[in-house]
Backbone:
């Protein structure tokens, strides 16, 4: 058993039971070891939670950053970012669920450490919207609000999306992109 095994199991347990509903015994059971054995790899549930949040943000930031720096139009970037982000959420649903729904469980010290990483990720989206405004591709009066609206829509998808549902995550991403970029007006 490795630290990564513990983190993978913890992500699954946290997704199923929530951070506060999960115990170290639950995590130990998921990796089929005694609870005491976990403490060779981690010191607490808080440490596990922070490590999972860091892992999720690093993965998503790396992927979205690579898209956001491409030499393409802001609307093309946004489409690719939406698709890449939703794919990342769906393909890593245990991990990303912890990121989206359990970050509020961080204690104050860990929360203060986590927030700048989250803000850096959000800034990637904000910067693409700002670029679109500067290039007159987007007509936005508040790019911060638009960023939060887009992120909220995308994040909530994880609560209802099913891989065996009627639409693939790519189809959903493309429809979101059309809605965000074209709106509802005829």
Residues:
């Amino acid at each position: 058993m490795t630290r990564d095994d513990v983190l993978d199991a913890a992500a699954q347990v946290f997704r199923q039971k929530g951070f506060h509903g999960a115990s170290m015994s639950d995590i130990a059971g998921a990796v089929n070891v005694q609870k005491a054995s976990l403490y060779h790899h981690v010191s607490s549930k808080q440490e596990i939670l922070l490590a999972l949040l860091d892992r999720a943000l690093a993965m998503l930031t790396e992927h979205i950053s690579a898209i956001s720096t491409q030499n393409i139009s802001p609307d093309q970037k946004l489409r690719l970012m939406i698709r890449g982000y939703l794919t990342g959420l769906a393909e890593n649903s245990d991990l990303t669920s912890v990121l989206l729904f359990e970050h509020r469980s961080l204690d104050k010290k860990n929360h203060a450490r986590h927030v700048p990483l989250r803000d850096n990720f959000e800034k990637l989206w904000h910067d693409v919207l700002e670029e679109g405004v500067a290039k007159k591709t987007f007509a936005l009066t508040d790019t911060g609000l638009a960023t939060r609206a887009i992120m909220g829509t995308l994040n909530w998808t994880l609560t209802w999306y099913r891989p065996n549902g009627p639409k693939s995550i790519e189809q959903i991403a493309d429809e979101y992109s059309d809605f965000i970029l074209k709106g509802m007006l005829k």
Summary: The chain is about 75% helix and 0% strand. The chain has a mean pLDDT of 95.
